[in-house]
Structure to design on (189 residues):
């Protein structure tokens, strides 16, 4: 198994470290030629979604990544990555990868001072999963019955799956490898 990690900005190193601890081969996506390497899945990390989107467009990565995800490439997105996947933001169409039937709220818990830790059930994975939220979004609503809600915190959707796509509002790479392990086994295979 070989997993690509978008490494333009944000918390990509932590995802790479988690994958390596699990014995999974990983490489960074920094330019279009990197994207053209063989891969079994891709991780879109947290960070600044606006910066990541701008860089993806400038580097010619946005459309190839979008097409591969639509073609079935497994993707695991955290925080800013979740925002990049969304079809809507606050009820309005959103520019980005636009591949997941969700409506997101950016910085939903406030700015940096609104960052927090919680524990909650992640359906089918853990009953008491540690979650670190950093300037986090949440999923305001699913736009399709194809979106499976995996976790909520304080009545906000913080993890969901739609086919080959897994997205979390929190940063599992900072707490436990359980979600990476599950994604590799159940989605990437």
């Amino acid at each position: 198994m070989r997993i690509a990690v978008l490494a333009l900005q944000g918390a990509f190193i932590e995802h790479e470290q988690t994958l390596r601890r699990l014995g999974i081969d990983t490489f960074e996506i920094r330019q279009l030629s990197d994207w053209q390497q063989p891969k079994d899945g891709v991780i879109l990390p947290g960070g600044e979604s606006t910066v990541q989107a701008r860089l993806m467009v400038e580097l010619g990565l946005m459309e190839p990544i979008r097409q591969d995800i639509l073609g079935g490439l497994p993707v695991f997105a955290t925080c800013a990555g979740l925002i990049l996947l969304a079809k809507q933001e606050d009820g309005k169409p959103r520019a980005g990868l636009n591949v997941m039937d969700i409506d997101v709220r950016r910085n939903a818990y406030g700015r940096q001072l609104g960052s927090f830790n919680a524990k909650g059930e992640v359906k089918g994975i853990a009953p008491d999963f540690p979650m670190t939220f950093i300037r986090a979004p949440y999923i305001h609503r699913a736009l399709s019955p194809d979106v499976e809600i995996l976790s909520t915190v304080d009545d906000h959707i913080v993890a969901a799956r739609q086919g080959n796509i897994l997205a979390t509002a929190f940063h599992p790479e900072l707490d436990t490898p359980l979600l990476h392990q599950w994604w590799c086994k159940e989605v990437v295979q």
